[in-house]
Here is the input.
Amino acid sequence: MRSIRHPLSGALYDLQSDGTVRVEKDGKFGTFRADGSYISGETKFADPHMCVWIGGRDLPSRSRQAAEALKKS
Here is the structure.
């Protein structure tokens, strides 16, 4: 799954198979929804922007769309 380390806090944001985001730092973790709202765990705060970025829906690749359009023409 997707994961990224927060550039300021160093926390690891990891997308889980059920669509939630697991945030881990210093051996403590918490589980959050894609909008950044808390679900469970010791860590009770997460950067909502990082949660949306990791847990939000996938957007189509503009470059891939352009390449496919060129193939069709």
The chain has a mean pLDDT of 91. Strands lie at 3-5, 12-15, 21-25, 28-32, 38-41.
